[in-house]
Amino acid sequence: MTVKSKHVRIKGIKDGLVFLLDDKCPFEDLLSELRYKLEHSHQNILTGPIVHVDVKLGSRPVTEEDKEAVLEILKGQGNLLIRSIDAVVESAQADQDVLFIMSGIIRSGQVVHHVGNLLYLGDVNPGGTVTCTGDIYVLGALRGVAHAGVDGNQEAIIAASLLTPTQLRIADCISRPPDEWGARESSMEFAYLSSGAMQIDKIHNIVKVRQGLNVFKGV
Amino acid sequence: MGEAIVVTSGKGGVGKTTTTANIGTALALQGKKVCLVDTDIGLRNLDVVMGLENRIIYDLVDVAEGRCRLNQALVKDKRFDELYMLPAAQTKDKTSVTPEQVKDIILELKKEYEYVLIDCPAGIEHGFRNAIAGADKAIVVTTPEHAAVRDADRIIGLLEQSSVESPKLVVNRIRPGLVKSGDMLDIEDILQVLNIDLIGIVPDDELVIKAANNGEPTVMNPDSSAAIAYRNIARRILGDAVPLMQLDRKMGAFKKFKKFFGMG
Questions:
Q1: If you classify domain A1-92 with CATH, what class do you get?
Q2: Highest mean pLDDT range out of A59-63, A81-85, A150-154?
Q3: Level-2 CATH architecture, domain A94-219
Q4: How far is CA B209 from the centre of its chain?
């Protein structure tokens, strides 16, 4: 068997070895390559005194069984003492917490969809639509339709510098602002769901619905 | 090589054909070689507004299908030697020519004429794609109504996806009285939504209707406030910096005229 791809990289650190395992390739390939490397190469490092080993699985989603399988192979070499085995648990959740920035004008008939949270620098015109699985922040005038939390996330919010939408939707709740909100002064505002009903508030009151924000309290 | 400008709007009835006829005539008035092209196949109007209906022999579809040479289909204007019109067919429909065919014809015309003005049909379908196929620039016509502005916005979005350069806006049929009383959208509101450069505003003027029915573009009549507006647009196309017309002032014909020359 010849192994061409480099799914397994072994690095030396001050007090041991780090096994960097690729997180994109199929898990089976990874195991066979690891097995091959331990059996056929690095003879001089892998025999001899006891070496501490850290295993890094990258951002691969792994089960306990998968970890066991990796450990099993490493245990085959008597001198390797496994100190840690870890995977970075950033996953999809972390990706979505990031604010994706986009700019331009969403004109009538145009639709922008984003998976995650969106910061839109520009206007959404009447007839234009912006949909998002997370929050929508518009740094500009929101005059069209905005739908936050399209997959059913009731925690999602919609904020805009000028919040004069044709229609707002959060998760399954639909609101027609002009009829239902009455006259307001148009300052930077945001919309959120409170027990199933759409509410509008000034942007600084966002702390009421978003715990865990960094709040400026003055110096 | 001349410049091809498409006049479009999305919504019907906002004054595309009137704008094409008047800007074209105003450019000819400035001594430019101009050709007007009607792409509204099946519903042609430009010939009627220009008063050239009875001179048509061949049309755009005949040229596209090779039944005649391009020069044979061109109709010379009765007022200007350097103003021509390529009429649309009235008996066919929009699908009888392809965007590529129109593009070739426009390219041919650009060799001969300094300005080629393309009158676009209403809508965003085949006819619209035909009209913008050969255009370098675009003029979007709207009126101060929500429906027209919405459609103009849609059109601008489509133009931005095409190869046509940044479109310019004409706000047509403004009634200063209604704007002042707050019953009509004002220019600022429209510009805030559409976010493109304004190239002219045209006041609502009964003389435009009268002129169109006589087959005589309004531009020829110096008593018409719309005529002044169209002449200003033509001058802006030629690169002159002409200030926007003041609409809130009631001006007599003489004062208007004086003002026009004062600015020029």
A1: alpha beta
A2: A150-154
A3: 3 Solenoid (2.160)
A4: 15
